[in-house]
Amino acid sequence: MQRINEDIKTGQLKNIYLLYGEEAYLRKQYRDRLKSALTDEEDTMNYNYFEGKDVSSGAVIDLAETMPFFADRRVIIIENSGLFKQGGETLAEYLNEPSATSYFVFVETEADKRSRLFKTVSAKGTAVEFPVQSEETLQKWVLGMIKKEDKKISASSLRHFMEKTGTDMENIRKELEKLMCYCMEKDTVTEQDIEDICTHRVSNHIFDMVNAIADKKQKAALNLYYDLLALKEPPMRILFLIARQYNMLLQVKELKTKGYDNKRIGEKVGLLPFIAGKYAVQASKFSGGDLKSALEACVEAEESVKTGRMNDVMSVELLIVKYSG
């Protein structure tokens, strides 16, 4: 990120940039910053945008070889093409010696570092990864935005907010915007404010549901399931999320057994340390055998729906009853 900031600041822009990684908010932010630095907003003649898996390398190369119209640059942004996983060989060959007037910005969630296209872009331009940000980075970011609004928040309230929103920066930004509007007349943001206005994510419902199952609180577990159905969540998606939760708990339990602390566990499974801690506590309520059995039951429930032996709503309900009884 620092390299891109420096390029924009000095005006020494590269012909090729790749922005990749799981953090969509940062990818979009730097995509837009590069676009603004490379081309005038009103110049539609020399700006081309491609998105999706059907991007034609031939069409892109033809455009790149076309001289810009009354401008110094032709800017081409290619997003979510999948070319950095497969099919990017033709473009990789061209980018070894591209037109000097053409500037490329690739934006991808995933990129195979072994691919020819990735190696070419890294050698000829700049590749920047935007991973899920650390707990410390996210908290500093949130605190900075709260400070700009001349408000305060306690450490415990901040943690509660992060638990509610997760690690997705776009979701954090939206929820914080709502929270700031809600607390417009207040100096300090409280946990109750967060509880009142911030959206409870589906994944939080699933976590709470599995907790209720582990504690044998069948009524609470079923109520959470019915709440999700009321929110128009498809039963098969709920089943998928339950299975994912059990799979995550199994991984966390195995890592805890090996002596890993919460920070290392979080790094291994893609969770913030304090969230990994919550998962470790939940995982301790199950044996490894219980978790494997629950995962197998999820597969069986899905199969019973696909083969028509049971309807989707009932299959998930019976799964919850079985393990919370």
Written overview of the protein:
- It is a single chain.
- By secondary structure, this protein is of the alpha/beta class.
- It has 3 domains: 2-129, Rossmann fold; 135-197, Helicase, Ruva Protein, domain 3; 202-324, Zinc Finger, Delta Prime, domain 3, CATH 1.20.272.
- It is built from 16 helices and 7 strands.
- The protein has helices at residues 2-10, 24-38, 57-64, 89-95, 116-124, 135-148, 155-165, 169-182, 191-197, 202-214, 218-230, 235-257, 262-269, 273-283, 288-306, 312-324, and strands spanning 16-20, 47-51, 74-79, 102-108, 126-129, 152-153, 188-189.
- The strands form 2 sheets. It has a 5-stranded parallel sheet with strand order 2-3-4-1-5, with helices on both faces.
- Helix 4 links the parallel strand 3 and strand 4.
- The chain starts with a helix and ends with a helix.
- This is DNA polymerase III subunit delta.
- Its EC number is 2.7.7.7.
- It comes from Kineothrix sedimenti.
